[in-house]
């Protein structure tokens, strides 16, 4: 009989968002009369239509594939030059990143899990708490952890608590680690990291020859001009950090799927015997073997988000979701809840009312006001006592959620 990867058996529950979907389904089945009133602010999935620039480019690309003269089969696994060049020109031209350091993919979630393929076992891994669950679960799956405890903390990981006292940016650990996951603007807390905070992390990583995996999937939501948009704005990051970026949330590509990894040539890992190996070359090798590239029409759609028309349409989307975030923040503040995030990120992170825990808040919101939120504890033990409201919604729904929060929690 085929042996399974028993690390999967250590995983505590279902992946957070399918688990929420399961509970929502159970609610709908038990309360068919209330199903129509349900508003989903759980998973951070975009709601507004795909920008016209991207749609037109994708349609044109499909037509190209329909003609013998312009047909294309397999593309370059690392991404077409037209997209890699546009990514550099629009994000990194001033930061010294080159097109052959960009690896186009089908999204950041896959990239942030797949990266473990090229990293060895035995690394000491630091993870913020609360955290995007993919970082933890993929480390569990690959065998980088021991067993989990009741709070969902896994043996062997170094947890970096993020709370209101440290503005949801973790303190530098007092022990050396090899791998650090950072996500800013942060999912789930909506916090942004300052230049000084990121510089401290880069200095720490350089001192201990650690690798930072910097997830900047929410970069487009940054409103404060002082907040860094890329880890490469920090001196020294070119020697110690990979960056993950995505078209999902800015271009509405959660269903279309496209993102990228930045792997500078100057970032190295080591073999057991101490030989230094370029991470970029390993990632490129892995990509060639395990991936056939994001689809051509999708890459054309992504490229179009950088056209003048596309940029304007992306800006409108960001403005729309950030106005939702502002409204949701205000509604929670008005009923006296402590509110964080939502200023440089599309997530509002809210302290549960006294005496209610995170899943209790989930139950209360769905049962009493038919609003789906994400329980903070689903993102890690330090998320207990909080809940996350996603600002990805129509304006009508966001306003309705505000009304229900004020009526129910006020
Ligand atoms: C979230 O709700 O945290 C996100 O949708 C997760 C993701 O982007 O995979």
Strand arrangement in the largest pleated sheet = 2-8-7-6-5-3-4
Q: What count of structural domains?
A: 2
Radius of gyration: 21 Å
Based on the structure, what is the oligomeric state of the protein chains? Answer: single chain
What top-tier CATH class of the largest domain fits best?
Alpha Beta
Mean pLDDT: 96
- Main beta-sheet strand count, sense and barrel state: 7 strands, mixed
CATH homologous superfamily identity of the largest domain: Type I PLP-dependent aspartate aminotransferase-like (Major domain)
CATH topology of the largest domain: Aspartate Aminotransferase, domain 2
Uncertain spans: none
How many helix segments? 11
Bound molecules: D-malate
Overall strand count = 15
The global form is globular
Helix-strand layout with pairing:
Layout: H1 16-30, E1 39-40, H2 52-65, H3 81-92, E2 102-105, H4 108-114, E3 125-129, H5 133-142, E4 157-161, E5 179-183, H6 195-208, E6 211-215, E7 241-246, E8 259-262, E9 268-270, E10 276-278, H7 279-290, H8 296-304, H9 308-334, E11 339-341, E12 347-351, H10 358-369, E13 371-372, E14 374-375, E15 386-390, H11 395-409
Helix pairs in contact: 2-8, 3-8, 4-5, 9-11
């Amino acid at each position: 009989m085929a042996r399974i990867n028993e690390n999967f058996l250590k995983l505590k529950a279902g992946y957070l968002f399918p688990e929420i979907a399961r509970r929502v389904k159970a609610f709908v089945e038990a309360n068919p009369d209330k199903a129509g009133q349900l508003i989903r602010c759980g998973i951070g999935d975009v709601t507004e239509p795909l920008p016209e620039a991207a749609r037109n480019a994708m349609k044109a690309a499909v037509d190209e594939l329909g003609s013998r003269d312009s047909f294309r089969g397999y593309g370059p696994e690392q991404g077409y030059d037209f997209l890699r060049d546009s990514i550099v020109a629009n994000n990194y031209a001033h930061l010294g990143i080159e097109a052959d350091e960009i690896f186009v993919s089908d999204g950041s979630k896959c990239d942030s899990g797949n990266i473990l393929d090229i990293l060895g076992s035995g690394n000491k891994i630091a993870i913020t708490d609360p955290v995007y669950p993919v970082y933890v679960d993929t480390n569990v799956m690959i065998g980088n952890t021991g067993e989990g405890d009741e709070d969902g903390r896994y043996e062997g990981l170094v947890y970096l608590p993020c709370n209101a006292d440290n503005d949801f940016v973790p303190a530098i650990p007092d022990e050396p680690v090899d791998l650090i996951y950072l996500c800013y603007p942060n999912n789930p807390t909506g916090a942004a990291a300052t230049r000084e905070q990121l510089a401290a992390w880069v200095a720490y990583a350089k001192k201990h020859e650690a690798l930072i995996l910097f997830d900047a999937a929410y970069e487009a939501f940054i409103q404060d001009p002082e907040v860094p948009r890329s880890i490469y704005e920090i001196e020294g990051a070119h020697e110690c950090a990979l960056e993950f970026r995505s078209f999902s949330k800015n271009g509405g590509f959660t269903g279309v799927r496209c993102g990228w990894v930045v792997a500078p040539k100057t970032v190295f890992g080591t073999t057991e015997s101490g030989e230094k190996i370029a991470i970029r070359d390993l990632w490129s090798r892995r990509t060639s073997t395990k991936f056939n590239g994001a689809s051509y029409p999708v890459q054309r759609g992504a490229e179009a988000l950088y056209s003048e028309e596309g940029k304007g349409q992306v800006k409108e989307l960001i403005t729309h979701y950030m106005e939702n975030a502002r409204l949701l923040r205000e509604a929670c503040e008005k009923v006296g809840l402590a509110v964080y995030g939502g200023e440089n990120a599309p997530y509002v992170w809210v302290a549960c009312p006294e005496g209610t825990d995170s899943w209790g808040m989930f139950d209360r919101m769905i049962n009493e006001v038919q609003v789906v939120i994400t329980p903070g504890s689903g993102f890690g033990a330090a998320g207990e006592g909080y809940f996350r409201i996603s600002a990805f919604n129509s304006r009508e729904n966001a306003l309705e959620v505000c009304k229900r929060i004020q009526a129910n929690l006020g």
